[in-house]
Write a structure and sequence with these properties.
By secondary structure, the chain is α+β, with helices and mostly antiparallel strands. The protein has helices at 3-39, 93-100, 107-116; strands at residues 42-47, 55-61, 67-74, 82-84. The protein is built from three helices and four strands; from the N terminus they run αββββαα. The mean pLDDT is 87.
């Protein structure tokens, strides 16, 4: 078998694995997001705009603006999944925004809070 054919077969296999892994990740994150929506009155999603950081925050609030649960999706590989962001459960959204406003790496949390602020004004 010549080397160009082997290279093509390996490239096709890698592309198939990447596509399959991406679909599995998409299904997992979608399922997790839907479960968060069921448990919370307001759910907000924010994406990091800081260079080199690929993070997404998913925040679940009750009808009074109190944070019930927070998750971070960090990474770009198919192994990335929603991981709990602890330490702020039970806090008002303004306190969460103030806490993360100085941390550029967690700008996704601030963006998620900004998106949902209109729901409580």
């Amino acid at each position: 078998m010549n080397s160009a054919l082997m290279f093509g077969i390996c490239l096709a296999a890698a592309l198939f694995l990447q596509t399959w892994g991406s679909l599995v990740q998409y299904r997992r994150v979608t399922r997790d997001y839907q479960e968060i929506r069921k448990r919370n009155a307001v759910v907000s999603v924010g994406k990091s705009t800081y260079r080199g950081m690929n993070r997404t925050a998913v925040l679940g609030f009750n009808s009074s603006g109190i944070l019930n649960e927070a998750y971070i999706l960090s990474g770009i590989t198919v192994f990335a999944k929603l991981k709990p962001l602890s330490g702020h459960d039970g806090e008002h959204y303004s306190a969460v925004k103030d806490y993360y406003s100085k941390d550029k790496r967690m700008a996704c949390v601030v963006q998620a809070v900004r998106y949902m602020e209109g729901s409580y004004d």
